[in-house]
Amino acid sequence: MRVMKFGGTSVGKPEAMIRCAELVEREIKIHGEKPVVVVSAYSKVTDLLLDAAKKAVRGDIEAPYAAVAKRHADLLNGLGLDEQIGQKNLSELHDLLRGIHMVKEVTPRLYDYVASFGERLSSKCFAALLRKRGHADAEAINAYDLGYVSDANFMNARPLPETYENIPKAFEAHKGKLVVITGFIAKEKNGDITTNGRSGSDFTAAIFGAGLGVDEIQVWKDVPGVMTADPTLIKTAKPLSRLSFEEASELAYYGAEVLHPATMVPAIKRGIPVRVLHTFDPEAPGTLITVEGVSDPAHPVKSIVYKEDQVLINVRSERMLGMEGFMARLFEVFARNGIVIDMISTSEVSVSLTTDITDEKRLAALNKDLSEFSKVDIQRDKCIVAIVGEGMKHTVGLASRAFKAVAAAGVSLQMISQGASEINITFLIDNAQIPNTIKSLHQEFFGQ
Q1: Is 309 a residue whose pLDDT tops 80?
Q2: Of 222, 254, 289, which closes a domain?
Q3: pLDDT, tens digit, for every residue of 332-359?
Q4: Residue 404: which H helix or E strand, with range?
């Protein structure tokens, strides 16, 4: 058995959704068994839903709601499907938006509730399309009705351990059917809907793949695989044929949008290969991600990625010098304010850290707490650039090549870090310097 996950672009238009249905049928024909299908919301619909939740607070309900309803109606009409499909979900969404206006507040719990309608609508639409094409047993099922239980960390939830035991038991009732599952969403133990972060449908696919012990997890995208660089910046970027789990995890964490950063975790635990494939060119080999990657001494770098809109926090205190417990106090402040650290660099009396948390209230609270025992400088609009490849650990002089390329682009580095695994080098620049930096690095390591 295989899991096939389709992203928002892949199901965002009638012709694209039909292509995905054809890929499911192709999979059945090739392997003689029905895959488990996981779908994202239609492209940009999650943004529309979150915007609708914000606007509902001040009473602007009808226009944002209509925008979501129209996207769903356009898909149904374009596919020739019954316009009543998903209407109960839309009515529930409308009532929820009115409720948000009444309380005049939208919490993370409510954001997740609102965001869940994207996948709940797209899964019903895709299952209906499959039934129209002759697959009478196709059914849309919410992930939480198939045993997916998460913690209560709304907007960034993680599965509880029992999820992996629940899933195979829940699937017994649907054995032999063509199941279409909602990506991105789960429920915590009290029954409230949670989401596992933006682009989280990849993660859902991996969770169900691990729970069912499948042969392969397929992630179908609108690109031909994991690339040597962002193809919107580097037109000559090439797809990578193979990556190790460790390389893929680093790339995902540092900005490769092809995969959700947490996708690798369930797959690694169960040793299940992940294959990134191209929806619009199914015969292309894509990128295979396994425990063992392929290292080429002539090309130690696999990919160059970046993570923009970071915040740099510089903390300086003479109390650091020779004082035990300072770092513990520092990290306790970050934890108390819910600030996740991406990079860190230390000297005798200062610490520099980065985070992707940009919420002004949380940053102001952090600044206030840190200022009690140190001088604080917070800078925004920064970007982490990461150079990743397992071959890097065996290559002398690679860092000097990277920094030479960055200098040639006229860019100054603001932080530098190398992980203990030695398969990446990361550094910090300004957002405005991204294009020149990536182009210069790609030319240095890939010659184009």
Answers
A1: yes
A2: 222
A3: 999 999 898 989 988 778 899 999 988 8
A4: helix 398-408
What secondary structure does DSSP assign to 278-336, as a single string? ETT-TTS--EEEESS---BTTB---EEEEEEEEEEEEEE-GGGTT-TTHHHHHHHHHHH
- The position carrying tokens 């602007």 is 60
The whole-angstrom separation of Cα 321 and Cα 348 is 6
Within 10 Å of residue 305's Cβ, how many Cβ atoms?
A: 27
> Within 10 Å of residue 120's Cβ, how many Cβ atoms?
23
Q: What is the CA radius of gyration of the chain?
A: 23
- The amino acid that residue 87 corresponds to is Q
Return the bridge partners of 277, or none: 220
**What does residue 292 show for φ and ψ, rounded to 5 degrees?**
-100, 125
Place of tokens 């892949």: 10
- Domain encompassing residue 62: 2-222
The CATH number for 123's domain is: 3.40.1160.10
Here the tokens at position 88 are: 């109960």
- How many domains are there within the chain? 2
CA distance linking residue 113 with residue 353, whole number of Å: 33
Structure token pair of residue 104? 């005049």
Whether 429 and 405 have beta carbons less than 8 Å apart is answered as: no
Q: Give the pLDDT of residue 420.
A: 64
pLDDT tens, residue by residue, 184-227 = 999 999 999 999 987 789 999 999 999 999 999 999 988 899 99
Which uninterrupted H or E stretch holds 344? strand 344-346
Asked whether the whole model's pTM tops 0.85, one would answer yes
Residues 233, 435 contacting (CB under 8 angstroms) = yes
Give yes or no: residues 212 and 312 share one domain: no
